[in-house]
Amino acid sequence: MSEETERRVARNEALLREVNEGIERGRWPGDDNRSLKFRCECSNLDCVDTVPMTRGEYEQVRSSGRRFALRPGHELPEYEKIVETGDGYIVIEKQDDAGKIAEQLDPRG
Questions:
Q1: Mean pLDDT of residues grouped by 10 in the chain (109 residues)?
Q2: Which residues, 6 or more positions from 62, have their beta carbon under 8 angstroms from its beta carbon?
Q3: Sign of the C-alpha dihedral computed for residues 83, 84, 85 and 89 taken in this order
Q4: 96 burial class (0-12, 13-18, 19+ CB within 10 angstroms)?
Q5: Per-residue model confidence (pLDDT) at position 105
Q6: Longest alpha-carbon distance in the chain
Q7: Handedness of CA 55, 83, 7, 64 (dihedral sign)
Q8: What is the DSSP letter of 95?
């Protein structure tokens, strides 16, 4: 994958992370333990899969600007490392330049 493609992938994932930030903001207090449907934050903008997570699980992912929640099999092993697995989801951490871009585009950063 070229450097430009790597940057595009990181930007796509950051865009979907912003969508999930909106989903999380729309939840009521007390939703922390109820499973919600977040968008898969993979690099494919055509992906419409959801990731079942509690608000607390999503907050754990968001503890790092390099981490994203994906459906299993949607990861790009050459740029991402799986750091956690859950029931119906994986958490990946962006590496190298893609990781730097992900951190720069983190709305919480």
A1: 76 79 66 78 90 90 94 91 95 89 84
A2: 108
A3: negative
A4: exposed
A5: 84
A6: 44
A7: positive
A8: -
Give one DSSP letter per residue of 23-77, joined into a string. Answer: HHHTSPTTGGGSEEEEEP-SS-TT---EEEEEHHHHHHHTTSTTEEEE-TT---T
Contact 7, 41 (CB under 8 A): no
Task: Give the per-residue pLDDT at 1.
Answer: 63
CA distance 34 to 102: 28
Alpha-carbon distance 23 to 6, whole Å?
A: 26
CA angle, 61 then 3 then 100, to 5°: 35
In the chain, where the domains are located: 3-104
